[in-house]
Amino acid sequence: MLIIKIKQEPRPEIIPDMLCDAAAKKRYRRGRFLGKSGFAKCYELTDLDNGQIFAGKIVSKQLLVKPHLKDKMCGRHFIFKSLKELYMRRKAVTEPEARYFMHQLLLGVKYLHENKMIHRDLKLENLLLNDYMELKIGDFGLATKLDFTGERKRTLCGTPNYISPEVLNMEGHGFEVDVWSMGASVGRHPFETQSLKYNYSIIKRNKYHIPSRIGPLASESAITMRIENHCP
């Protein structure tokens, strides 16, 4: 997550197409709008030096009137990078690295599920790494909490390439949708096609392709997990 602070404009709803981080001597091109919070707007930002893409929170300086808010925002600058960014730079991770990240992800998801929380948007972009390569789960915008054991949610939500058959079929879903999303996090999406409609069709039919670079043990584990949790 990249934090950009800009001066208050006469019309604060207008954010320039080009943004400058004077401290880091960086310039960014503002892209599509991603969302907003109480005092920030989030946009896709492209670093003009290297083409790297960030999710950037843009905050008016005049809103940071309290010292603790200013310190909080400054403390977030470039602390986390996403697993997606790592993958884009490296094009792959080794199986030991994958086991390392998956172990941390499983512990995080286990904690959420034990507290009756479903994330519902687990993907590489939402798996963050700090300077010690510790994995953190981010972006709980689609998360929900079960009110009672066995409750099934029926909201159609999620990211197309990671969304599970239960969500698409509107048949009610629970913790298993997070398990599905973890299995789809293999770099190139196993359900990615040129047509979103066809994407959804093969997801509903649980028809997927495991890339050849995935080792036999990992492939067998993925197949077993999918069969046990998502047989038609």
Describe the structure.
The chain has seven helices and ten strands. It has 232 residues and is an alpha+beta fold. The chain has a five-stranded mixed β-sheet, with no helix packed on it. Mean pLDDT is 77; it is low at 5-12. It is globular and about 50 Å long.
First-last Cα distance: 39 Å
Q: What is the total number of structural domains?
A: 2
Shape: globular
Task: Supply the CATH class of the largest domain.
Answer: Mainly Alpha
Strand order of the largest sheet: 1-5-4-3-2
Strand coverage percent: 15-25%
Q: What does the radius of gyration come to?
A: 20 Å
The strand count comes to 10
CATH second-level architecture of the largest domain? Orthogonal Bundle
Helix content: 25-40%
**CATH topology type of the largest domain:** Transferase(Phosphotransferase), domain 1
Average pLDDT works out at: 77
Secondary-structure element series: EEEEEHEHHEEEEHHHH
Largest sheet: 5 strands, mixed
Q: What structural class results from the helix and strand content?
A: alpha+beta
Q: Low-confidence segments, ≥5 residues, pLDDT <50? A: 5-12
User: What's the CATH H-level homologous superfamily of the largest domain?
Assistant: Transferase(Phosphotransferase) domain 1
* Number of separate helices: 7
